[in-house]
Amino acid sequence: MTTATTLTDLTATEIAAAVRAGELSPVEVAEAVIEAVDALNSTLNAFCILGARATSFPERGGVRRAERRCGS
Questions:
Q1: Which of 9, 18, 24, 40 is 20 to 30 A from 3 (CA-CA)?
Q2: How would you classify residue 71: left for phi > 0, otherwise alpha for psi between -120 and 50, otherwise beta?
Q3: Higher per-residue confidence, 67 vs 14
Q4: Could you report the per-residue pLDDT of 39-67, keeping only the tens digit for each?
Q5: What per-residue confidence (pLDDT) applies to 72?
Q6: What is the CA radius of gyration of the chain?
Q7: Alpha-carbon torsion 20, 22, 27, 30, what sign?
């Protein structure tokens, strides 16, 4: 990733590769998406409920499961 590229500009394939390579964590990805939704949702009104709290509890195994799925 270049410094000019934000995480939300990447494709899902690029994000998965970055997670597998250890360049990004699943939590970083989720937080970037949540921030993008927060920034745009008042205009788009695309989401009623957003489960943002899931990224706050990595000890519950969500991060480990996501890393296994991505091959980390």
A1: 40
A2: left
A3: 14
A4: 888 888 887 776 655 555 555 455 555 55
A5: 47
A6: 13
A7: negative
Task: Tell me what percent of the residues of the chain surpass a pLDDT of 70.
Answer: 60
- CB of 62 within 8 A of CB of 30? no
Helix (H) or strand (E) holding 15: helix 12-20
DSSP string, 28-58: HHHHHHHHHHHHHHHHH---S---GGGGG-G
Residues 6 or more apart whose Cβ sits within 8 Å of residue 24: 7, 15, 18
Structure tokens at 52: 């943002």
Is the pTM higher than 0.70? The answer reads: no
